[in-house]
Design a protein that fits this description.
283 residues, alpha+beta, 6-stranded antiparallel β-sheet, 5-stranded antiparallel β-sheet
Length: 283
């Protein structure tokens, strides 16, 4: 007699938490942030005893489109989940990994140990498209609990990258590179949008003045930076900025949202002695 195949823990979590994505449209990052803020305030005002039932109500105020609130304790056990409360409450998911093999729940606990609010990126199966897609979650630690709201991150287009570059250029012209760089380096600011970010390199020194995804690179030499295929991408960008003022450079780079190495095209522009760039990823 053959045994019936069984789903592993990761499969159970994927099936249960993706059920909302099969109906309704994707929520926007702004809508996810609004629900997250509302859930945090509700928990702080009412405490766990009243908050968990509210979060678990599948037709309640904390389930919208494909958004829902979930809460785990520090042992990695679900205490609330608006997507599938019947199957997930009480389930320990500490060692569950995302579609790229990253231990996302351990990461959630670790990052909120350092700060009460954080944002993480991971990859998850979207049952609506049946594709693994990048997802972003806002996290908040309240005592021994971690509350989260996640949304599927839109894959940015060439148009999105151009628009962000235009906005960055306007900011440099308006307030100067030093003030603009401070905004570009704010990882939670308006110049970091899902898999898009702004970077700036001083054309004279070749050093990073801003990098929205890795602000710690500011002040380091960018001119010798190569992609994974050995392509001297920044050197090419600097030469292009000096000779033509703007243009595009193609290379391969790690996507911070999917954590995969992907083809990338970056639009660059010369602004007041600085190279400003924004790139987008193609699958």
């Amino acid at each position: 007699m053959h045994k019936k195949p069984t789903l592993g823990l990761a499969g159970i979590v994927l099936l249960a938490t993706s059920s909302l994505a099969t109906a309704g449209e994707h929520a926007t990052p702004r809508e996810a942030r609004a629900l997250f803020d509302q859930a945090v305030k509700h928990l702080q005002a009412n405490g766990p005893d009243k908050a968990w039932p509210a979060f678990n109500e599948r037709k309640g105020a904390f389930v919208r489109k494909d958004l829902y609130v979930y809460v785990i304790d520090r042992q990695g056990t679900y205490v609330a989940n608006g997507a599938a409360p019947d199957s997930l409450i009480g389930l320990k998911v500490l060692d569950t990994v995302d579609a790229a093999g990253s231990p996302i729940f351990r990461q959630m606990i670790a990052v909120t140990d350092k700060q009460p609010e954080a944002r993480i990126r991971y990859v998850w199966l979207n049952r609506k498209s049946n594709h693994v897609e990048p997802k972003v979650a806002w996290l908040h630690r309240e005592g021994d609990y971690i509350l989260g709201v996640g949304y599927y991150a839109p894959r940015s287009t060439a148009d999105d990258a151009r628009k962000l570059l235009d906005a960055a250029s306007a900011e440099v012209r308006k307030s100067g590179i030093r003030s603009a760089a401070g905004k570009f380096n704010d990882t939670r600011g308006s110049f970091v949008r899902d898999d898009l970010y702004v970077f700036a390199v001083n054309l004279e020194s070749g050093k990073f003045e801003a990098h929205g995804m890795n602000p710690k690179w500011v002040g380091t030499d960018a001119s010798d930076l190569h992609d994974v295929e050995g392509h001297p991408l920044i050197r090419e960008m600097i030469e292009l900025a000096r000779s033509k003022g703007e243009g595009t450079v193609d290379y391969v780079w790690r996507n911070p949202v999917t954590n995969a190495v992907e083809k990338k095209r970056t639009f660059i522009r010369r602004e007041n002695g600085s190279l400003i760039g924004v790139g987008f990823y193609s699958e």
